Amino acid sequence: MTLNRLMWVFASLFVAFGLLMAAVEDTTARKIWGGLSVASLGGFAFAMVFDGVSKGEIRVQFSVIERATQPRLFWAAVTLVGAAGIGVVVSAAMVLFFRAA
Question: Terminus-to-terminus CA distance in the chain, angstroms?
Answer without folding.
Answer: 37
